[in-house]
Amino acid sequence: MTNSADAAGDHESYDLAVVGAGPAGLAAAASAAEHGVRVALLDGAPQPGGQFYRQPAAELRAERPQALHHHWSAFQHLLARLDAVRERVTLLSDHHVWSVTGGSGAFAVHALTGPDQRQARSLTARQVLFATGAHERQLPFPGWTLPGVVGAGGAQAMLKAGLVLPGRRVLVAGSGPLLLAVAASLTAAGATVPLVAEAAGYLGYARGARVLAANAGKLVEGAQHGATLLRHGVRLRPRTAVVAAHGTDRVEAVTLARLDAAWRPLSGTQWRVPCDAVAVGHGLVPQLELPLEFGCHTRRLPDGSAALVVDAAQRTTVPGVWAAGESTGVGGVQLAITEGELAGLAVAGQNTAPRSLLRRRSRQRAFADLMAARHAPGSGWTQWLDDATEVCRCEEVTARQVRDAVAELGAADQRTVKLLTRAGMGWCQARMCGPAVARLCGAPNADRHDDGAPTRPLSTPVPLGLLAECDTNAPSSEGAPR
Amino acid sequence: MVVIGAGMIGAACADALALRGLQVAVLDRGPVAGGTTGAGEGNLLVSDKGPGPELELAVESLRLWRELADDLGAHALEYEPKGGLVVARDPRAFAELQASARLQRTAGVTAAEVPADALGELEPHLARELAGGVHYPQDAQVQPALAVAALLRRARGTGRVRLLAGTTVTGLAEGRVETDTHGPLHCAAVVNAAGTWGGEVAALAGATLPVLPRRGFILVTEPLPPLVRHKVYAADYVADVASGSADLQSSAVVEGTAAGPVLIGASRERVGFDRSLSVPVLARLAAQAAELFPVLSDVRAMRAYRGFRPYLPDHLPAIGPDPERPWLVQACGHEGAGIGLAPATARLVAQLLDGEKPFMDPAPFGPGRFGKEQS
Predict the structure, then answer these.
(1) Residues of chain A positioned with their CB less than 8 A from the CB of B286
(2) pTM for this one?
(3) CA A433 to CA B114: how far, in whole Å?
(4) Which of A32, A424, A454, B152 could disulfide-link A344, Cβ–Cβ 3.0 to 4.6 Å?
(5) How many other C-beta atoms lie within 10 A of the C-beta of residue B354?
(6) ipTM score here?
């Protein structure tokens, strides 16, 4: 079967549209197509792989892109499987999906492509699978807007995509298993990492000994990072955070502090470390704007992030809509591939999934839950902020303004704070500040705060001229009259 | 007094009652400005209303908004007296627009005809091929959530107003409001300012108020240098408000904002509380905006938001006591005009509760007008 345009009109039509070509999307597309499903696989990046398997641009002529990757062979295997079913899979790279509309059996996927994303492309599909991944949670601190302060995931992506280092002496900070991988990549690429500051304690892992033992591969991976770091003399400091960055034109040093269990800085424990870059991240939060807009239900994970509710077959709560990978809860590349496999099989109508695959998913999910609980941001992080710290960088809204909206005007959620302060109204549409603002709205004495999950009807900016064309070109969607 | 609803109407009522020395509790099951207010554009319009009780209410309300901007600071409300410009696409629409402007003038509206060749002076980027327009200098703009916050801040400053956000009303009877988190509240009267959900609140007291939701979308562009000076829309908008049709009726209201983005709004559909994104509706808004301002074609829409306008079958709000329960004062159902009509609505409510002679005859807004045929 080929993927020619629908005979009825100028719309391409597929059995399944997979949104996101990271590990979960690739696995889902491959396993569905292997069972006869015609798949459109859409992704905003120029090449498949997602954040995890991000590849250097071709013009850089990297000789060994795999040098910075774990599980590179798994990626090659996925690509080979897709190649074997290429007559049933249409890979649409550089396609930014801005909306999915419609209902069971007839979905319309609207994307932008081409230079500067100024070409429209719509297709229809009988089913949709969201493999939209995750983005990094940022918790602000004084000085975090200085040049040289980059996201930990962003630093990793820079290395993988462009082979560029954010600095020569890069301090790594935040929380979560990603920090060790980032520090290992940075040192392998020639940077000096004076310290890895992990806000959580590592003691809590002991409570999950059984889960850890069942996920030996993860331990080996962690040990490998650990060994790399040891070799380069990098120290890991648990219960420690960057509470301020200093510098005039760019970051020159940071202040570190020891934290208590709730992430409150302990007085008298502050010290300064010189550096020319900081890679900081506080874990990942699922990227949900498209499924949320669709009305898919979510659940709250132990770290306060929202993730899609899926059943054993990776079905969301909306008929015809499936999800796999980080969008159902951050769990890393192996879980993402397992979920993608299962989702693809279920979409293809294979009702009995291999039990080994199901067992692998529950084992990996248990590990993910352990990590989420272990690295959940403590509510004491807000003590790092001073009144002048910008929480929303796009609209330059300070911590003071957010706190006033909460205390004086009774704003109890991110949306109300946004309406009253403009926090989250700017270019990034709260992707950067959303979790921080949501957490600032939480009751001050609560143990746990959550990341919120605002809906965004347009998941990427759309030129009005292109939007206008959808008036006549787009298939009509449910809920719209006429 | 208990005011149910912490949106624009509820905040204005709480402020008006507190300034008269009354003790007020403002309840909302959600946050401040969490319903229709938070999803609105903040239009203060006389231009879209024909002569009649709603226009009379609007003329007084826009005068009160000017006073509020003087008292509270234009900046605190993001009040902008930018004026409206209604344009006609062809000579026939222009003739209708001119006729409607003549009638509006008899009701106290300032409306200046603008011939086609003078439109460019008011709006340099406007499409060339329009037949003409009418300029309404009284039309203005506030940021609704900020306006609610400013009014509640002033009201609470009197020391007579309690704000109970996140509090759901579970029962209503004379002298008594049952709530889920603050127990029963005792009061002399209840103001129902629950907007789109006003019918549900009325039902708690056994009263009937057929408030229905009408969905609307607003598109927001990326920040731009000043490009659109007025609230600009095409003449068919005026016909939409009175339309009883369930089909989509939209004519883009295009305006710039101080922060940079251009807002494109005013789609109206009767689809119940359906929150799903409608691409055809957004597409039509985009097409109409680009038709009025061709330069917008290449500009990107950053986001869209939606809300539910509360409307009553005759498209007039309900303001005044329930005929059988004089302690229950309705103040809801303002459709797309609630921000604009809030101060005058609050003034009427306060005058009725205070036993003062109202500034206009409230009979056309009387909640009793639905009672019989609906029950």
Answers:
(1) 464-465, 467-468, 471
(2) 0.84
(3) 46
(4) A32
(5) 13
(6) 0.84
